[in-house]
Structure formats: structure tokens, C-alpha cells
Amino acid sequence: MPYEHSLYGCPVDATLNVISGKWKPQILRLLFQGTRRFGVLQRSIPGISRHVLTTQLRELEQDGIIQRTVFAEVPPKVEYSLTEFGKTLEPVLTGLLTWGEHYIQQQDKQKSAT
Amino acid sequence: MPYEHSLYGCPVDATLNVISGKWKPQILRLLFQGTRRFGVLQRSIPGISRHVLTTQLRELEQDGIIQRTVFAEVPPKVEYSLTEFGKTLEPVLTGLLTWGEHYIQQQDKQKSAT
DNA sequence: CTGCATCCTCGGGGATACTG
DNA sequence: CAGTATCCCCGAGGATGCAG
């Protein structure tokens, strides 16, 4: 029975550590739609470099969110996909999305109320 | 009609920017329970300094999540509480909490499966 | 095509001292 | 009591070049 006093600092921070890389929400959004190759991911996320994309993917893999599949071909081919556990993140991100939309509306109202 | 194609990178990042200060989940947890004075907050969060607590509170205030009430007394007294809008964050954080607990369980299984 | 090594920048967060 | 003002450190993320 973990976290019985609901000191929710720790598990909340754990979740944030998993999803709060600069590009991770975008990466996850793409992978929620299906398996993607490395190059496709890079072209789908304007502004990200190979190095950083690699880093973010490695971290998500380390955290058990995504799977990396290497095909022994020439030229190399690597596919990334969500693990079953990774798919459980979708409703969480949807929650963040929905609240974020409300937040942005709220900010707009603040400005126009000047 | 904002974000119609559900490109949820942006609003998700907006939410993350609001809640992902190092101590913000803890601060919010305390304020979900009710109004708190500055000193009470500091003593409730071991390890945080006044400077950093001030910074995090200012940011949350700026984002419209919390309210700061100053009492013209000696010695000074300042109370912090959630705004109505800030209260809408609670279910979001609860979502992060729940997923974080599953995640921690998952990690434990990984280790013991060695 | 995919990825590692190296170097650098920048800002969040910490330590400390002073103040209304 | 509740801050502000400085200074500093460290790590995430960006740029570039090399490699299997």
C-alpha cells in the first residue's frame, strides 16, 4: 500500500520527469498515432536535432514508455513504438492538453480585459 | 476554435510550464488543502529556501493559479490561496499522481525481474 | 539512415547576506 | 515575518563533426 498519506509530491514528480523533456510531448503524440522511424520523427518535429532526438528517445526507452526496434539492413532502419505501458500515458497527456487549452483561453481574457 | 487539429504540443507544454517548477506540486498540494501563510509553506516543505519559495509563488501568481493577500500588520503577514481557476488544476495533478504510482510499481517490477 | 563525441550556452535553482 | 539582491553551480538542450 504505497503512498498511503497521499503525499503526492513524489509520484507526481516521477510522472513529470518522464514527460517533461522539451520535445517529449510531441514525440509521444506522434507515437500514439503509430510506429515511426527515426527520420520520420525528426522531419515531423521541426527544429529538433538528431542528437537531441536520440537523447529524448533513449530516456523514454529507459523509462519503459517506448520500444526501439533495429532492422539489420543497409541502410539502417530503426522503428520506435509505444510499449503497452507507454500507451497508458495517453489519457494523462490528454488531461494536460485540455487544461492547457483552458489556461490559454484564460490568459487571453486577462489581456483583453486591460 | 483553437487547436482544431489537436496538435497538442502547445497546450500540453503550457500546462507543463505552469506546474513543473521543482517545488510547485508540493506547494499546490498544500494549497489544495486551504489557505497558507508564507512561513507555514516554508516549514511544510523541508529543503526549500525563502528565495526559491518566493520565486515559485510569484510564478504561480503570475499564471493566475494562486492569490497573494498582504495584511498591513506588524509583523507582516501574507497569505496564499488558490484562485478559482487554480482549483481546476487539482484533477490534473491527481492524474499525474495516479500514473506516477503505476510507473513506480512498474519500475520496481523491472528491478526484481533481474 | 541512424547515432555517438565534443563543446558550448543558458536559465532554474541553491547559498548567503541585507531590509521594511 | 516575508521578502529582495547577489553570486554561483549544474545539467538540459543546441551546434557541429565523425562513424557504422
What is the H/E string of chain A? HHEHHEEHH
Q: Tell me the greatest interface.
A: A-B, 42 and 42 residues
Helix fraction of chain A, binned, reads: 55-70%
Quick one: CATH superfamily of chain A? Winged helix-like DNA-binding domain superfamily/Winged helix DNA-binding domain
- Quaternary structure annotation: homodimer
Distance between the termini of chain A: 50 Å
The strand line-up of the biggest sheet of chain A is: 1-3-2
Low-confidence spans of chain A = 1-7
Q: Give the strand content of chain A.
A: 5-15%
CATH class of chain A: Mainly Alpha
Average pLDDT level of chain A? 92
Number of discrete helical segments of chain A: 6
Radius of gyration of chain A: 17 Å
- Count of distinct structural domains of chain A: 1
CATH architecture of chain A: Orthogonal Bundle
Helix/strand-derived category of chain A reads alpha+beta
Q: What is the CATH fold-level name of chain A?
A: Arc Repressor Mutant, subunit A
Main beta-sheet strand count, sense and barrel state of chain A: 3 strands, antiparallel
Shape of chain A: globular
**Strands of chain A, count:** 3
Keywords (chains A, B): DNA-binding, Transcription, Transcription regulation
Protein name (chains A, B): HxlR family transcriptional regulator
Domain HTH hxlR-type (chains A, B): 10-108
GO molecular function, one term (chains A, B): DNA binding
